Amino acid sequence: MIKQDRTFFYFTFPLAILIICVSLFGLFYPDTYFLETPQWHAQCIGQDILDLFLIVPVLIFSGLFCCKDNKVFYPIFGGTVLYIAYTFVIYCFAVHYNFLFLVYCFILGLAVYAFIYFINVVKKKSVEKWYDEKTPVKWTGVYLLIPTIIFYFLWLSKNIPAAVHNTTPDDVLQNGLITNPVHALDIALFLPGLIITSVLLIKKHPLGYLLAPAILVFFILMNTTIAVLALIMNLKGVSQSGFSVVWMMSGFAIASILMLFFFFNHLKKEDQPDEYILTKL
Fold first, then answer.
1. Contact assessment for residue 229 and residue 46, using Cβ atoms and an 8 Å cutoff
2. Which residue, 6, 32, 88, 160, has most beta carbons within 10 Å?
3. Intervals of the chain under pLDDT 70
4. Tens digit of pLDDT for each residue in 106-156?
């Protein structure tokens, strides 16, 4: 008999409800983002669409299967709440203050604690034993370094010249922000975290096995988001980058799906729940 862990449901249900409320207000109440520039307004609307039709379903589905101790859905849940935490840091600090501010804060807090709970639960389950000896840990670890190098180069190429000349980067001015929250999160926290996870996985450390598939899920969701937001901005005529970003991020999303497939394909069958075996997507 499978032990039920209802705590995942206690995180999933309020998160889903609050995100749905934020998305609906953002999409159907015009005054929500009335202070934003056209570029930032388009991205806010696009994010609300993605949250409502992609993130919430993935969150609910993965949270319910985590309650049933399904090992495939633990990293899906972890990657999803990490994505939510990342996204709502931006809502809290880079969207002009509006009547949803407290809701943004509640979502951010719930997502952070949900991610902490995910790590605390899964690390006790000897996650490294879920996978067979042929699991592509080195290839996956190297793959995690690719976007790290690319985005460090992209962000530093914008910020170093601006810092040297004491000017403000163009993207910050175009979005009507005081700084770029994505650059801050990536340079300070996320990209170093990718390097650490990559090294841990290559060394076959249990924490590497725990975090790597969750980060691949994060990649899938985030790359899809960037591609969709770039597409929306192009359709609204507020983007200067053309469709190159759409194609590049779509390619990264597909590559991350393939890497996650190969990783999950090495789950030991005897370690999976009887009622739901998913080694092939």
1. yes
2. 88
3. 1-3, 240-242, 270-281
4. 999 999 999 999 999 999 988 989 999 999 999 999 999 998 999 999 999
